[in-house]
Amino acid sequence: MLYYSGFTRRIGDVDDGSTVTDFLPAERARGITIQSAAVTFHWPPQGQGAINTGKQDGPRSHQSHTINLIDTPGHADFTFEVIRSLRILDGAVCILDGVAGVEAQTEKVWAQANSWSIPRIAFVNKLDRNGAAFAKTVKEIGSRLKGWPAVCQIPWWKGGKGQFTGVGDAVNLCAMKWEEGGDGKSIETFTLDKLEIEDSGLHLEIIKARAALVESLCGYDEQLLETWLECEDDSMAIPPQAIKDSLRRCIIDGSGKLIPVFAGASFRNIGVQPLLDAVDDLLPDPTQRPDPEVSLGSIKGGLKDLMSGRLAISPVLQKSLAKKPASRNSLVSLIEGCALAFKVVNDLKRGVLVYVRVYSGSINKNATLWNTSLHVTERAQRVLQMQASDAVELSYIGTGQIGVIAGLKYARTGDTLVSIPGMSPKTGPPPPLNNLQLKPIDIPPPVFFAAIEPNSLSEEKNVTESLTLLLREDPSLHMTVDDESGQMQISGMGELHLEIARDRLVNDFKAKATMGNIEISYREAVLTEGISHRFVLHRDVAGKKGKAACEAKVEPLLPHFPSEENTVIRDGNAVTIDVLTVVDGEGQPILPPELSLSCIKAALMNGAVAALARGPRRGFPLHETHVCLTFNPSMDYFGADTSPAALSAAARIAVQTVLQAADDGDSIALMEPVMNVVISCDESSLGAIVHDLLSARGGRILSLDSDENGSIPASEGLKVIDVERIYAPPDPFASIDGTQSSGPGQLRQITAIVPLKEMVGYLKHLRSLTGGRGTFIMSIDNFQRLSGPREKAV
């Protein structure tokens, strides 16, 4: 893409380690993407094709568009990189392997894209490889991604059975042939008439593909149905632009109900330019996406509604707006720019770089930015546009663009940055604008743990600082310090994730440390309802007299726990805080003057959370535990000595005492993480893998599928796809009945629940069982109680 758009002068290759977006040494050594990288280019290249006049007369792909491309990883361990990139995208291209088809991790990322309603198109790659099966992949798109595949391009095999040489275009009714062994720039285009002489088989197949494409689109788009009826039911007479417009209308809502499918082989440089045209023609620009969701404290709504004044705002803000006549009706003149920080990178030359997506206005160079999550102001010293590892200086980043701000000290992933001219650097914008937040990015919980040991005491500070930088870059990594041993522990999404973290720590940050064995994060849980206990704290807290009391009780958290007003669910536990209050004549609660209701609840919550962080049995955090805290001002309040700090300490000790009593009565169980594992293997290895999971690893098999059966539940409103009705051109290597030849080589999929402890280092074992062909992905399922023999082993 970068080569054809004129951005680079040569084509990079993963195998040679010469790619632009995979620039980290670890990425080049392993041949995989680890960190998402952003590149901006123009398609068609500026100066080619029609000039972008803003008129939408011809195809959009004839006008030069600015494309911000983000290359994301495919490995399950780096799923957070995908999540934070999806959060800010307007559209996506899903690249599928023509040999492997729809893989398990593809389904996972597809489901994430569904949750953000990202419009998508699919590109079936690697069709030049032996065993490539375009038809099989198309049917898997229907069965496993639960969307109707609209085949826009079909592969052109030499002589119908031979080498992959080009693609047939069902939209523009033509075929494109690429020069063998060339750089992909010389393309020979055949109209249908010419194609009939060149390859009559492909000519007939394109006519079939066009009829199938129109038929499937008419089921989703009434406008095209009317055009089809006007053309007297002749699918060949419909103009290509009408089909492009219809495809765009069908995918722009991001529901994934219809999936345009394109074909190619990027290693042979086939099919890339038509894919870029499809990006221009079908995917939306920032103005065509839904209004970004924002919250101002308890007020929620759209960013455009807020800017135009349609969203109800607080009287305090209205008063401050009333002083500025220009801003009386809208906030457009008040808020200069609003952006979301979605990635932080520590660059050795440029320092900390914060990647942002601007949703409103612009972020100018040297602008003062208010971080609404941390309530601090920072200055945007430099504004850059990243080209993978290179950068271009800009004066501003405009609406809808992705850029980088250099020199921010505090910004983290998911923070909202607001630029307001004339804002006080200390107090920030007037409330509630100081709490204006775009929808944040969810961080998945860690799964794998390892110990980090500095080589000497003098290195400890340097290692801690390097780890802090690493954690700011990648929030899916977590660091904790064990209270008893003083050992630093790092946790992440998987073995490879921690291995890469160690490499970066040692090689990039030059930290002198070693990483210990991977440890599993166990949990503890309460089995029976405990007795309640009231604790009175009477001691100095932070150098001041402190006296406070509260009553605590613990019990197991039920699977379908009813959500109550006073209950907060946190880290798999529920904390219910009941403040007994006397109500005055107007129905308002009578509380101590210096302690508000929210202050009491926050203090008690902090105490309970601190107590739940270490269990009484082995010091593991508690899980599926329900804590009830009761505070009675008439008994538990002791005048000025009852401070929030004293209340927190009283709550913590009260909960710890009740938990210890439960442990004394053998009512605390150990829990271990169990994983949802999806293993792909061929038929011949199936028996050995199932036997190994059941007998040696304490696993439970949920299902055994051949790869035709999907595992993503269909989203609401999507039709159940009948795979038999999906059109796909015949594969040259398929058997007579049109299916891929089955037998020992047929791919099977095993879905199982297995304890995480048994999955450490499993990949090497799986490869030895399957002759190097087996792959697996896993995600945390839940925590389950340890059985007797397994508990002894732990």
TrEMBL record:
It holds the Pfam family GTP_EFTU. GTP binds at residues 71-75, 125-128. It is found in: Mitochondrion. One of its GO terms (biological process) is ribosome disassembly. The keyword Acetylation does not apply. GO terms for molecular function: GTP binding; GTPase activity. Residues 1-287 form the Tr-type G domain. Keywords: GTP-binding, Mitochondrion, Nucleotide-binding, Protein biosynthesis. It comes from the Eukaryota. GO terms for cellular component: mitochondrial matrix. Catalyzes the GTP-dependent ribosomal translocation step during translation elongation. During this step, the ribosome changes from the pre-translocational (PRE) to the post-translocational (POST) state as the newly formed A-site-bound peptidyl-tRNA and P-site-bound deacylated tRNA move to the P and E sites, respectively. Catalyzes the coordinated movement of the two tRNA molecules, the mRNA and conformational changes in the ribosome. Mitochondrial GTPase that mediates the disassembly of ribosomes from messenger RNA at the termination of mitochondrial protein biosynthesis. Not involved in the GTP-dependent ribosomal translocation step during translation elongation. Belongs to the TRAFAC class translation factor GTPase superfamily. Classic translation factor GTPase family. EF-G/EF-2 subfamily. This is Ribosome-releasing factor 2, mitochondrial. It comes from Calycina marina.
